[in-house]
Amino acid sequence: MHSFRRGMLIISNGPGIDVDVPMTKNHLPHAVSRLRSSRLERSTRPFLARGGPHGERCAGCRLILSHCLCALRPVVPTRAGVCLIMAEHETLKPSNTGWLIADVVPDTMAFGWARTEVAPALLALLADQEWQPYVVFPGEFVAPERVITQLLPAHHPADAPGQPPDARPVTASKRPLFILLDATWPEARKIFKKSPYLNQFPVLSLAPEQLSRYRLRRSRRDDHLCTSEVAALCLGLAGETLAAQTLEAYLDVFTEHYLCAKQQLKVDSEDALHQRLRALRLPA
Ligand SMILES: [Zn+2]
């Protein structure tokens, strides 16, 4: 059963359960949105689904309606894909940035992680010959022979052009798939250790010089990168510059909206962050 309410498509999933999903002309609910909805269905705290005590949240961006970001959502088609493996509570955090990746990168897949079971769809994705998976994880915690700091030669942007097709390795036809563990650091380590189906794939470790260049450019002081920043770095390695820059600019605008909402301040949609995001838009 479908019905409309305040611009949302309400999908009735059985007696007493309504799940709000964003319904706009261009955007169907993405993978992280669907994962969140299914997590909310199992929630015993119904206020979570309705935005909690601080006002109703938009189902499209999770912000309170006065600070909705949906009109600014950029979509950048990429050859690379992203596979998010998410700790269960990450999907519920309004500040989770895996959501932003799914907003921007159409081929974003998302799965909830559990120690005792693995989604058959995740295994099918990892076995799909269309993709070359890379597990993105710090190399210092991994056997050195698995660790790479650049994409495999076929995916390295500098190696791809000019090569005759028959000289390229078989992986040339595969699309890079970045597996990101969207979790706190202790959880990410646990997911990495206790997911044997990831063991067969190379570990892409972001090199310290990449990270420090990134921090300088972004004036970041702390050591922690959020999931969408890691995704932006990976997309940059794959030569997807527009997607990488868009994801960074979108994170900045999201953070601005998120913090303004928390502090009950109005957003200035003409500030430098919004202008930068608009400047990156593809011509229609
Ligand atoms: Zn919204």
Reconstruct the topology from this structure:
Layout: E1 2-5, E2 8-12, E3 18-22, H1 31-41, H2 47-50, E4 81-86, H3 98-104, E5 108-112, H4 120-127, E6 131-136, E7 147-148, E8 175-182, H5 185-193, E9 203-204, H6 208-217, H7 227-237, H8 241-262, H9 272-279
Parallel strand pairs: 4-5, 4-8, 6-8, 6-9, 7-9
Antiparallel strand pairs: 1-2, 2-3
The chain binds zinc ion.
Zinc ion (ZN) binds next to loops.
Q: Give the CA-CA distance, first to last residue.
A: 34 Å
- What is the CATH class of the domain at 78-153 and 171-280? Alpha Beta
| Uncertain regions spanning at least 5 consecutive residues | 1-25
Ligand types? zinc ion
Walk me through the structure.
- The protein is an alpha/beta fold.
- It has a domain of 186 residues: Alpha/beta knot.
- The protein is 32% helix and 15% strand.
- It has a 6-stranded parallel sheet with strand order 5-4-8-6-9-7, with helices on both faces.
- Strand 1 and strand 2 form a beta hairpin.
- Helix 7 packs antiparallel against helix 8 and helix 8 runs antiparallel to helix 9.
- The protein is globular and about 50 Å long.
- Zinc ion binds next to loops.
